[in-house]
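quick one, 238 residues, struct below
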Amino acid sequence: MLASVFKALDQMFTPPFRAVLFKSVGLVIVLFRLLGWLSDTGISWLETTMGSWAHGALAVVGWIIAVALGVGLLAGAVLLVPAVTAVVASLFADEIAEIVERTHYPADRPGRALPLIRATIEGAKIALLAVAIYLLAAPFLLFAGIGVVLFFLATAWVQGRQYFELAAMRFHSVAEAKALRRIHQTTVFIGGLFIAGFVSIPILNLATPLFGTALMVHVYKRLAARKRERIEGPTRSP
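---
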């Protein structure tokens, strides 16, 4: 796992990754500004535009965003940044994964890009899951030590799950990728711990989609290589 972490970090600021970094950070900033607008005047504007029938749903959305923003600030953005970067990661994961595969695994069959609609749906599902889990864990912040640990572990589980599935879905169907993640859930969770540590660092955490995707591509490739060895036997030098 440490070898995969160092490979991901080593590639973070190479020229190909920098191009993706600028785009992903720009989108993260736009999404944060959108959330800020929704928590302020956006919900009222939407209610006026859509009519009274949407009042209940929009009130719930506004409350969730307000709580998320508040808890995010108290917890050093441990809540909000992972949720926002989940959406960003789903849009740029294939671009990042392709660079990693081409650089480190040129002899392997390249993965297939996930259709944009499917990638967006998966990113939105993970973002909503992240917010739901973090809101459930929020009351534990009253007990500082327990709360921080719970937030960190929840972040590791959510982030590891998302980035591994995005890497695996380049080679498998959605159902197969999720099944593979469940089979290797301990390894995926350990990888998620490193991503959770990365996302806890202010400013640097804006690059989480790059680090998380790169790390889980290496993790997936390592697991796939182990499976090939079990089936075909270890490769012997001539």
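The longest helix spans residues 15-50.
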